[in-house]
Amino acid sequence: MPRILLVDDEHLLLMLLADLLEDEGYHIDTAANGDAALARARACQPALIITDFMMPIMTGLDLARSIRADGDLREIPIILVSGAQAAIGRGHPDLFQSVIDKPYQNETLLEEVRRLLA
Description:
Blueprint: E1 3-7, H1 11-23, E2 27-31, H2 34-44, E3 48-51, H3 60-69, E4 78-82, H4 86-90, E5 98-101, H5 106-117
Helix pairs in contact: 2-3
């Protein structure tokens, strides 16, 4: 199964999402901020990145910009999962292949993951 990188500074949400996706058979890597996620993406070359927007050090928007600027990573699809900042993500279809509002239904997220990895 594909490798997915999850990025969120809220540890509990990160672990819940990791459990959900691991139960579906995906291999999961995690990072607590955008800077750590960029380094992790370079190391593990995930098939998909799911990121929050508001995080310390580097936001999800900054992370997406850095991913798109990196020749080895630029083709990785990115899902933004956010509350109040989801509208900002929708304004950047060049960066995010999907934007999902928090709170979300697990099945909604799983459908997007399946669609982007098909």
